[in-house]
């Protein structure tokens, strides 16, 4: 995978510091006495480099993509201009900066981080998109130096960076499988805030941050039909702007509705479906592809693919999600050999469905429980913290109290709410959009990032025009209607007739029918169905059963055998406690959440760098620390 690293040093050669930090084959793209930017090694042959442009005195880099610019404020129609075809994103941004100054960033639409170095003004600006989809991690080891990277794994390896695990923020990651706001589990290492322009003056060393956007929920008093019309129109426009004649596109197709809508929006595409065998989910996806006259390609994983992700994805760890979640990293060749660009349905459920909206649950006795399609009231910060604690895995031995950590980091500041260093206008935005803002804290962002680094990739639902529509959509429509299904019906009546793999009913059925079908399907599979998968860890859904995978294979104990010393050094459960947790899981309890999160931390290269008190590893650069950690850890996963 390709990452971008940078050093700003006002007291000498930034390039020299960069050379001391990165492997010898890192590609330095730009270097002056004060600023140095580099791309990381181990680049997949089809991965995207940061876009770069310069006019001599101003240099610009775009990590990700800029789609265009919109002069509206999100509540009214504006003058939207797509980036002209053939114009490089960095050149586009450089031209706008020359004409308008740094304020142009507030109008950009895209998933990006933008770096602007203005030599005449002697300043470097780091600009994040609205949702912070391309994270930048940074630290200031001293008053003269700023070190940053798009990969949090890289920063502890910098010779000047002295960091340690924060017990409080590591506790949050272990409990929630994510970090919050700008925090990371490493002391003195943070992320840039979403929707901001952070500027460093190289002359004075001053760092300032200006926020140009934050989510503001403002529901429109419109009918559901109005939202269906507007959503369908905007969705089609987004897909049409991105796709080009003469190029081959692919869709990551599930058995559900979000990716089905993406396929319906394309005239011709290859449908890639990831699964562990041709189960019900795969057969539904194949039926959708054949009905759409699209070629169907099964990307077959199997248990070893899942297990090998511990090694394959160790450099991708961001303390959000598990080692499993850059799902496509073993299929780069299959994707890049077949297509020029890829689309997915990621984040449709987070923006337009009830996903993330707090709802009450009710018990059905031996049949389990169901989530009711009504909103649960969250009126105070304490209510919100209670809601978070209900979702936490918090029975591990840790030196901090989780409620105390949350109360110290989520609080009112005047009329606004501060949540781990990120400001929201009201508690309403925290509740509805806290999982998406910043988006880099969402565990599926690792999936999004892996795709972006493999080939040209886009999920239409993260286009600002659709994000704005979500912010104007009443919560009742998200909870008790289905916007995506209705859009599929508009674009492809043939596809809407095919059942959803999770509900067993077609997308054309009403919300009550789909709601009842989903819960009936769960009961059928659990209590009635005579169908038995060929292996206990296989399922009829999109993912294998990780609980059974842990019981069927000994990879957890192999990791603990190799990494037990690191576990003992973590401010959390030691190796013996983790082994007992695994034994408890094997006896029938479900401890996947705790075990997978711990295994993810233990296999991260930065964990060894921070915990092993070895000055040779951290500061000997022949070979450098990166070269050492690029060598695979030898663990028997069979």
TrEMBL record:
GO terms for biological process: asparagine biosynthetic process. It holds the Pfam family Asn_synthase. InterPro entries: Asn_synthase (IPR001962), ASN_synthetase/amidase (IPR051786), GATase_2_dom (IPR017932), Ntn_hydrolases_N (IPR029055), Rossmann-like_a/b/a_fold (IPR014729). GO terms for molecular function: asparagine synthase (glutamine-hydrolyzing) activity. It comes from the Archaea. Residues 232-493 form the Asparagine synthetase domain. Residues 54-155 form the Glutamine amidotransferase type-2 domain. This is Asparagine synthase. It comes from Natronorubrum bangense JCM 10635. The lineage of its organism: Archaea, Methanobacteriati, Methanobacteriota, Stenosarchaea group, Halobacteria.
């Amino acid at each position: 995978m390709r990452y971008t690293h940078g050093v700003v040093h006002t007291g000498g050669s930034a390039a020299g510091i960069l050379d001391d930090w990165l492997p010898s084959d890192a590609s330095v793209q730009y270097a002056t006495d004060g600023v140095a930017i580099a791309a990381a090694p181990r680049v997949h042959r089809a991965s995207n480099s940061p876009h770069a442009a310069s006019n001599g005195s101003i240099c610009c880099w775009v990590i990700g993509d800029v789609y265009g610019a919109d002069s509206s404020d999100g509540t009214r129609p504006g003058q939207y201009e797509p980036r002209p075809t053939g114009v490089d994103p960095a050149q586009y941004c450089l031209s706008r900066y020359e004409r308008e100054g740094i304020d142009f960033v507030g109008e950009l639409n895209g998933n990006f981080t933008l770096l602007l170095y203005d030599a005449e003004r002697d300043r470097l600006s780091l600009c994040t998109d609205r949702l912070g989809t391309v994270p930048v991690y940074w630290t200031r080891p001293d008053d003269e130096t700023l070190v940053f990277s798009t990969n949090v794994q890289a920063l502890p390896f910098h010779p000047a960076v002295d960091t340690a695990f924060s017990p409080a923020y590591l506790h949050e990651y272990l409990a929630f499988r994510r970090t919050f706001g700008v925090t990371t589990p490493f002391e003195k290492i943070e992320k840039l805030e979403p929707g901001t322009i952070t500027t460093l003056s190289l002359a004075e060393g001053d760092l300032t941050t200006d926020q140009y956007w934050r989510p503001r929920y403002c529901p429109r008093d419109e009918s559901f039909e109005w939202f269906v019309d507007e959503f369908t129109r905007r969705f089609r426009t987004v897909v049409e702007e991105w796709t080009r004649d003469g190029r081959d596109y692919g869709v990551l197709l599930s058995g559900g509705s979000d990716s089905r809508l993406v396929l319906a929006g394309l005239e011709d595409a290859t449908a890639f479906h990831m699964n562990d065998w041709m189960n019900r989910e795969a057969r539904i996806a194949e039926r959708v592809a054949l009905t759409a006259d699209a070629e169907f390609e099964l990307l077959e994983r199997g248990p070893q693919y899942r297990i090998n992700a511990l090694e394959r994805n160790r450099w991708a760890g961001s303390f959000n999600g598990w080692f499993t979640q850059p799902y496509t990293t073993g299929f780069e060749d299959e994707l890049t050999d077949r297509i020029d660009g890829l689309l997915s349905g990621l984040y449709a459920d987070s923006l337009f469905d009830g996903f993330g909206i707090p709802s009450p649950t009710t018990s059905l006795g031996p049949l389990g429980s169901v989530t009711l399609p009504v909103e649960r009231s969250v009126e105070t910060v304490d209510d919100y913290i209670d809601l978070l604690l209900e979702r936490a895995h918090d029975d591990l031995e840790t030196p901090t109290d989780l409620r105390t950590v949350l109360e110290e980091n989520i609080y009112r500041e005047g009329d606004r709410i501060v949540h781990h260093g990120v400001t929201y206008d009201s508690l309403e935005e925290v509740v509805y959009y806290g999982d998406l803002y910043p988006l880099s804290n969402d565990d599926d962002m690792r999936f999004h990032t892996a795709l972006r680094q493999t080939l040209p990739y886009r999920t239409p639902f993260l286009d600002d025009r659709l994000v704005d529509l979500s912010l104007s959509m009443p919560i009742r429509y998200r909870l008790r209607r289905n916007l995506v299904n209705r859009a599929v019906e508009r674009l492809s009546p043939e596809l809407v007739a095919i059942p959803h793999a999770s509900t067993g009913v077609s997308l054309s059925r009403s919300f009550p029918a789909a709601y009842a079908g989903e819960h009936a399907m769960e009961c059928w599979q659990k209590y009635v169905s005579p169908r038995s998968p060929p292996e206990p860890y296989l399922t009829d859904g999109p993912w294998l059963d990780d609980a059974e995978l842990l019981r069927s294979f000994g990879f957890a104990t192999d990791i603990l055998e190799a990494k037990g010393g690191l576990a003992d050094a973590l401010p959390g459960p030691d190796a013996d406690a983790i082994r007992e947790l695994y034994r408890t899981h094997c006896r029938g309890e479900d401890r996947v959440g705790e075990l997978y999160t711990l295994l993810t931390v233990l296999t991260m290269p930065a964990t060894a760098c921070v915990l092993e008190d070895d000055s040779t590893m951290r500061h000997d650069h022949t070979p450098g620390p990166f070269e050492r950690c690029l060598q695979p850890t030898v663990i028997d996963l069979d």
